[in-house]
């Protein structure tokens, strides 16, 4: 059995930041420094475990949208974008997958494989989801309804803005 979570930061293994059950962060930090594992409460029962998730108690925002990723073909990647304002929590409710994040100055990989851990993703983090196991299901909790205007879909543009590079004058 693999560890409940694994983390590498710029290629070096390390202990991931962790929020304890019921201790959701009060405010969002943008960029990779704000990425955190969340250890959800678990109610153990002989007939099966229960993991409740409540907004502002277990996740640091009001939950405005929920979506699932499933039936991801082997070798496929999801994500490939960043958000200007949206906050998310990704959870492997079944199987496993990796979340690769970067913010223009650092890059990290987080492996999710337990339904009682989530990965908090603040605004201004480029993310890719990859290495999906067979029959994996990713649950994503989002702080805002879908808004295409909140997305960075061009990685080069995102990195330029995230690094604070000056905008080149139009020719």
What would your notes on this structure say?
The structure is a single chain. With 171 residues, the protein is mostly beta strands. It has a single domain, classed as Jelly Rolls (Sandwich), CATH 2.60.120.10. It contains one helix and 13 strands; from the N terminus they run βββββββββββββα. The chain has one helix at residues 155-162, and strands at residues 5-9, 12-13, 18-19, 36-39, 65-70, 78-83, 88-94, 97-102, 107-112, 117-121, 126-130, 137-142, 151-152. Strands 2-1-9-8-11-6-13 form a seven-stranded antiparallel β-sheet. A six-stranded mixed β-sheet has the order 3-4-10-7-12-5, with no helix packed on it. A hairpin with a 2-residue loop joins β1 and β2.
Question: What is the compact description of this entry?
Answer:
With 171 residues, the protein is mainly beta. It contains 1 helix and 13 strands, in the order E-E-E-E-E-E-E-E-E-E-E-E-E-H.
